[in-house]
Design brief:
It contains one helix and 16 strands. By secondary structure, the protein is mainly beta. The protein has one domain. The protein has a seven-stranded antiparallel β-sheet, with no helix packed on it. A five-stranded antiparallel β-sheet has the order 1-7-6-3-2, with no helix packed on it. The longest helix has 17 residues. The protein is globular, with a radius of gyration of 21 Å.
Length: 237
């Protein structure tokens, strides 16, 4: 009888964890941060600043689930979900505030864009602190091994959507310092490429600019996650 009960509970446990993961819908509003956090989730990064140009501090949060689950993550082409990974899901949440003492109002919940803790390679968790400057939300990631990468994305709230206005893709070798730094300005549609070394005293950097032939600005809705936008042939952001 005991063996049957053990088998029954094991089957129930397996069936529970085999269910597809469902992201929660975050609270639409709340005055206190604690009231906005769903059960089994925690805040791993937060930043405050004016995001909609009304001189009132808004809030952006990164939330992480308490345990790893199976997730289908886009890889390489922004359209096809090619890989299934076991990792802790993350949510980017952005709340606006209408007055200094008013409630926070949910503007954006994005379940895809934030890299997970296992997506940074040998360097570990790729997530770096968020920043708000000039009404722009900047998201930063870093990872790799001997060759390392840094990605920075600046989004601005325009026409009731989050448009990618600037980005930076830096690749460098941890030993030699050799680097290639690509800086994108999507408003002025220009790209600056800087090559050289991380230590400029060793070798002077070389910089050149070129136009970006981008017709439509990317948004959170059209930009699945980092590394999935092929801007040019074999050039991903």
């Amino acid at each position: 009888m005991k063996i049957k009960l053990i088998l029954f509970f094991l089957l129930c446990h397996t069936a529970t964890y085999a269910q597809p993961f469902v992201f929660p819908e975050l609270p639409a509003s709340g005055k206190l941060l604690a009231s906005l956090i769903p059960s089994n989730w925690k805040v791993i990064d937060s930043v405050y600043g004016d995001l909609n140009n009304d001189n009132i501090n808004d809030m952006a949060l990164v939330l992480e689930f308490y345990r790893p689950v199976k997730e289908n993550r886009a890889y390489g082409d922004n359209d096809t979900e090619l890989i299934t990974e076991v990792q802790k899901p993350r949510i980017l949440a952005i709340y606006f505030r209408r007055s200094a003492n008013g409630a926070y109002r949910l503007v954006t919940q994005n379940n895809d864009f934030m890299l997970r803790s296992e997506e940074g390679g040998a360097m570990g968790d790729p997530l770096r602190p968020m920043h708000i400057n000039a009404n722009q939300l900047s998201l930063s990631f870093e990872g790799g091994g001997n060759w390392r990468w840094k990605l920075n994305y600046s989004f601005k709230y325009k026409e009731k959507d989050w448009q990618l206005v600037k980005a930076n893709n830096l690749a460098y070798h941890s030993s030699s310092g050799e680097m290639n730094n690509k800086q994108y300005d999507f408003i002025n549609k220009t790209q600056k490429v800087i090559t050289g070394t991380m230590n400029q005293s060793i070798l002077a950097d070389t910089t050149f600019e070129q136009p970006l032939t981008i017709k439509t600005l990317r948004t959170f809705n059209s930009f699945k996650k980092p590394w999935t936008w092929e801007i040019k042939t074999d050039e991903f952001l």
